[in-house]
Write a structure and sequence with these properties.
Blueprint: H1 2-6, E1 9-16, E2 32-37, E3 42-48, E4 58-65, E5 69-75, H2 79-89, E6 98-105, E7 117-130, E8 144-150, E9 154-157
């Protein structure tokens, strides 16, 4: 169990949503990233004082929100990926939404035993792209420092 918690491998798969704005994108955008953050839910609660219930205040779910996904330190040479980013930022309508799947695997020795944990997001759009600073002496530079994706829903799939 401790070995499983110490090392993770993951894959990010992006696919065109088909909601419009993706005309001319000949295939799904591709890229590789070394870190993903934003896999979380924020659940807001509303307090309800119910007559006849004297043990306290009832808590009701008001709304659920998820922060942007942030993909860090990535690389891509895919023209479709950059075309998708450009369409997200050039102001044309409709926007080229994407759907995505993040598959989290255990260590390489454990991959044979079980299916990956999957997170899916729907209707994602780029909100920020950050390139690394330019430094001729730097040998570990990456093409994309951060890619922020705002989305309309995140869920963890239970297999």
């Amino acid at each position: 169990m401790a070995d499983f918690l110490s090392t993770f491998n993951f894959a990010v798969h992006l696919s065109i949503s088909g909601l419009g704005g993706d005309e001319g994108l000949i295939r799904d955008p591709e890229g590789a990233f070394s870190e993903v953050t934003g896999l979380e839910y924020q659940i807001e609660m509303t307090a309800l004082r119910e007559g006849g219930y004297n043990q306290g205040v009832r808590q009701l779910v008001a709304k659920t929100s998820q922060p942007e996904l942030v993909l860090k330190r990535g690389m891509t040479a895919d023209a479709a990926f950059w075309e998708w980013v450009q369409r997200c930022t050039d102001g044309t309508y409709p926007l080229p939404y994407i759907n995505g799947t993040l598959e989290v695997y255990g260590p390489a020795s454990d991959r044979k035993r079980g299916a990956p944990v999957k997170w899916r997001f729907l209707n994602g759009i780029v909100t920020k792209v950050a390139a690394p600073g330019l430094n001729a002496a730097e040998t570990s530079a990456v093409a994309i420092e951060e890619l922020h994706i705002s989305h309309e829903g995140l869920r963890r799939e239970i297999s």
